[in-house]
Design brief:
It contains 7 helices and 17 strands.
């Protein structure tokens, strides 16, 4: 297939990077550990970061599992500055000659799903909101731009004017340059390629996915799961800005998706499905935001947030999609955002 990623010259074909890798993290002992990013919020939506391992319960297909690993993943620095403010600071390294050199503290990929933007009014508001957000880049930020049509892209930079100029070139109903096979979902494969590219970057890595949502077929739930697994291993969080019908799909912190729960009613078979945005955000420790004011949505993602990372060893290696559920021992009006499933490894004969 054709790739228009100038900043990913090593990507000759998405089909190569999109080949599924074994789920979870396999150690030298041969034990596979499934990692589950978890975000806990209080009643006002603020992140709660003072919980311990014993505060969590983890269930695989309804059976409680032993949490074998636990950590708190912070924003990549001791104090995460509010990136919507102009005076946030970035660390500076001194070269041998005594000249200060800024060390990037965060790499952010703005992934605009221009194939799902519905009308010019939405497009203009998205471009304006993104341009305003990019004007507030901090010295330690590096931002890049890519579109699902593969017609607009820009490598990581700290130049707000260049970023804003590229955002202004995003068009309505572009002719897609990239193609995938009929058994693949374009946005999922592109995101996977971007995640692989970002995996070697030496700082915090985030993707801000701006989309109305896209449909992942019922028989492709492992494709979405594989993207989540790939992002977790690469330590890339996916934040999702829903610019579609602005419906809140996050009630109670539970994803109303049946892609990983075949027993539930099916998703709506429409070309733009916001539920997948919730899956990707909650599954990678990111944040899902929605609303008609896109500027507010972008601001909600301005300050990186911490999340917990739980690990467990799956009891069954059956190669099937398993349902996951994370609960708190004492909720106290707290809500939990976590991935809703995973693809179990296949036992080798």
């Amino acid at each position: 297939m054709c790739i228009a990623l100038r900043f990913v010259p090593a990507l000759v074909s998405l089909s190569v990077l999109a080949a599924q890798t074994p789920p979870g993290e396999t150690f030298k002992s041969g034990v596979t550990v499934i990692q589950v990013p978890v975000v806990v919020r209080d009643h006002d939506g603020h992140v709660v970061s003072n919980l311990g391992k014993d505060d969590f319960q983890l269930f695989d297909n309804g059976k409680r599992q032993q949490i074998t690993s636990f950590s708190v993943e912070d924003a990549g620095s001791p104090v995460a500055p509010d990136r919507s403010l102009p005076d946030a600071k970035a660390p500076v390294a001194q070269s041998a000659g005594g000249t200060g050199k800024l060390i990037p503290t965060r790499f952010v990929m703005y992934f605009f799903d221009d194939l799902t933007i519905r009308d010019f009014g939405d497009l203009k508001r998205i471009r304006d909101a993104a341009a305003r957000q990019l004007s507030a880049l901090q010295p330690g930020d590096r931002a890049a731009i890519f579109t699902s049509s593969c017609t607009v892209d820009l490598d990581f930079t700290n130049d707000p004017q260049k970023l804003q100029e590229v955002v202004s070139r995003i068009q309505l109903h572009p002719v897609a340059v990239c193609r995938v096979s009929r058994v693949q979902t374009l946005q999922v494969e592109l995101l996977k390629a971007v995640v692989n590219k970002m995996s070697s970057l030496p700082a915090r890595r985030d993707i801000i996915l701006v989309s109305s949502g896209f449909f992942v077929g019922h028989n492709r739930s492992d494709e979405e799961t594989d993207l989540i697994e790939t992002a977790i291993r690469a330590k890339v969080s996916i934040d999702a800005v829903d610019v579609g019908e602005a419906t809140d799909y996050t009630t109670g912190g539970v994803t109303p998706s049946n892609a990983m729960n075949p027993g539930e009613p099916p998703r709506n078979d429409n070309p733009t499905n916001p539920v997948v945005l919730v899956d990707l955000a909650h599954g990678t420790g990111g944040t899902y935001v929605t609303g008609n004011d896109f500027a507010v949505s972008f601001r909600k993602l301005a300050t990186p947030e911490s999340h917990y990372l739980l690990g467990f060893v799956p009891a069954k290696a059956d190669g099937r999609v398993h349902q996951l559920k994370v609960k708190l021992e004492n909720s106290h009006k707290l809500t939990v955002e976590a991935r809703s499933g995973y693809l179990a490894p296949q036992r080798s004969e």
